Amino acid sequence: MDQETWKLVLEYLAVKENPNSSNAEIKRLEQKLSDWAANDPDRKEQLEEALLLWEDTAQLPDDGSWEESFANIKQQLDAAPAKKLKIVRWWPAAIAAACIGALIFFVTGDKKTLIAPQNAIAWTTKTAAPGKIVDVMLPDSSEIWLNSGSSISFPQNLKHADIRTVKLSGEAFFKVKRDPTHPFVVKSQNIQTRVLGTSFNIRAWKGYNPQVTVLTGKVAVSRDSAGVQSAAVHLLPNQKVVYDIKSVRLMREDVEEAKVSIDWRTGKMNFDRTPMEEVFQTISHKYAVKIVTDQSFKSCQLTAKFDNVEISEVMKTISLTFDIHYTINKQTIYIKGGKCN
C-alpha cells in the first residue's frame, strides 16, 4: 500500500472505532476502500489482512520494529491539513498507536515497509476428486481433510507468513497448528474464519449458505464484503454459525454434538431436518453422482442417518419417505414424483 492508502485505512479504523461516528461516514470510507481494492486481488488481500491484524492484535509489537518504518508516514500525517486530520485527533492516542503499530508491523516485519514484493508468492492447490476424501498437511503442520469435490489453496510460504491465509472451496475439516503470533485465516465463499489454533469444520459449497462448526478452541467468523470485514461472531466448542446469503446475516447456533459435522470423514451422513436440496447436494458429492428431479423439493426436509452404506440404501430410504420413484443410470439418478411428509 502507498502512504495515501495507509492514511485512508487509518482514517477508516478511527471512524469505525468511534461510537459517535455516523453510519453514513463509515459507509463512505468503506466505499473508498472498496473502490481502491476493486478488481485487484492483491489489493484486496492486503486490505483484508491489515484489517484482520487490527482485530487480532490491536496492540503495539513489543520489539518496536515498526518505528523506523513508520517515520515517513508519521511525517506526512503531521504535515497534513488540519481538516483532514480532525477525525484522527479525537481518536484515543493509545488506540491510534495500537492500530498504526499493528498495521505497520504486519507489512514491515522485516522493515521493508511500503515496498511491493519483488516476486509474487506462489500458491498451491489441492483438490479432492469426486467421491474421494483427501488428507492435506500444510507447510505449518496444520492438517486438513477435504470432502469430495472440494479444494484448498495456500501460499508456499505459509509457515512463515504473518497471517496464515488459505482459501477453501467446498467443505473441509481443519486441525490448525496453534501459533498465537500468526493467526490462521480461511477464506470461503462470503465469509472469513480466523483462529489461532483449534479444530473446526467449514461447509461452503457454491450457491448454499456457508457454515462453520467448532469442535475445539475458539474461532471468529466475519462476513466479507468487497474486502471489508463485518463485526466477527465468536464461536466456542459445540457452536456453529450459518451465513444467510439472502439476508446477509451471520447466525450463531448451539449444536448438541459438533463431531457430527465431520462424520463425512468416515463416510457417514447425518441429516436433521435438513432441506432436501442440501441432502441431494451431499449425496452428489459423496457418491459422485448427478441428481435430476422433475419437481422442486424446496419445502421438504429429511431426518435420517446413514452409516457408510451403498447409495441404493440411501435412495430406498428417500423413496419411502417422500414417495418418489427413481432410476440410476451410470452416474445419474433420475427422480420422479414425490411429496413432503
In short:
By secondary structure, this protein is an alpha+beta fold. The chain has 3 domains: 3-107, no CATH class; 124-258, Jelly Rolls; 267-337, Phage tail protein beta-alpha-beta fold (3-Layer(bab) Sandwich), CATH 3.55.50. Helix content is 31%, strand content 31%.
Arithmetic mean pLDDT: 77
The CATH topology label of the largest domain is Jelly Rolls
Shape: globular
Q: What's the CATH architecture name of the largest domain?
A: Sandwich
Name of the CATH class of the largest domain: Mainly Beta
For this entry, give a set of tags.
single chain; 341 residues; alpha+beta; Jelly Rolls; Phage tail protein beta-alpha-beta fold; 3 domains; three-stranded mixed sheet; 19 strands; 31% helix
Written description of the protein model:
- It is a single chain.
- The chain is of the alpha+beta class and 341 residues long.
- The protein has three domains: 105 residues, no CATH class; 135 residues, Jelly Rolls, CATH 2.60.120; 71 residues, Phage tail protein beta-alpha-beta fold.
- It is 31% helix and 31% strand.
- It contains eight helices and 19 strands.
- Strands 1, 2, 3, 4, 5, 6, 7, 8, 9, 10, 11, 12, 13 and 14 form a 14-stranded mixed beta sheet that branches. Strands 16-19-18 form a three-stranded mixed beta sheet, with helices on one face. A two-stranded antiparallel ribbon has the order 15-17.
- Helix 3 packs across helix 6.
- The longest helix has 16 residues.
- About 18% of the residues have low confidence.
